[in-house]
Predict the 3D structure of the following.
Amino acid sequence: MGRFILRRALSALVVLFTTSVIAFLLFFVTPGVDPAARIAGRSATPATLAAVRHSFGLDQPLPVQYVKMMQHLFITRDLTSFVNRGAKVVPQIIAATPITLSLVFGTAIISMVVAAAFGLVSAVHKGRFVDPFLMALAVLGISVPVFWLGEIANLLTQGGLHSSVFSWVPPLGYVPLTANIGLWALHLLFPWITMSVLYAGVYSRVLRGEMITTLGEQFIQAARAKGISERRLVWRHAFRCALVPVTALFGLDIGVLVGGAALLTEVVFGLPGVGYLTYQSLQTVDLPMIMGTVIYAAFFVVLMNAIVDIVHARLDPRVRHA
């Protein structure tokens, strides 16, 4: 098991390194992207552009620029933005991370609770009216774009109905959990619901399929023949077995969400999380911030993949030798 964990950790480091190199190179091969021109301004003279390139090290070979950027990002931790002079990348990402984590974990709780209810009820009542009805809602949730649903929520809660129906909904923004837990939850309520619609739909369909498969297994039939109650069969046996693939999928999605998949939701609801930082850095073509957020995203995706693999290897020894 220890060798498997070491092998998985080494592969994670390779993935992180490869991701950072690809992101760095893509920045410079993108047509029309010149960091020096954006720093110096539109009316900058060739002499000014040359001075800016020299000042920021942009006149050096790309491998040297990459090594120096990684040094400033990971070792000295003083990598600064090209656009907002003096603004350090690492502190901004650290300050934005709790906002993204608050959004993601609230979404995770809501989506898993709704998915468990939908998937369980649909599987138990397979073929009845409630089954296709709930699965139709799940498909609808999967199909609706997150940014569109977020904009509709904003139109309802911040628009004409705000003064009458949604007067309890605060303006767009974020309040830290440590400042006021009630306002923290109110600011995140509709972002949570918006993101949960998609993931609850996905998980409920997966859980329903796994529940139906498990209820048809021989050990369930044998337990039913022994006189075990149907409720105990569903809760103690089928539901627990069906949760295994769902939790694996859930773990991977958590990594993706924390890594940046919550970007659209943060932008729509004005949440200054890491996704919003990524959006701003892409708008301004700010290479240091782009590199910081990309490596942050890759880290969480790789971390959750590694955790899922290690848990599976612990449960199934065959995975260790795959």
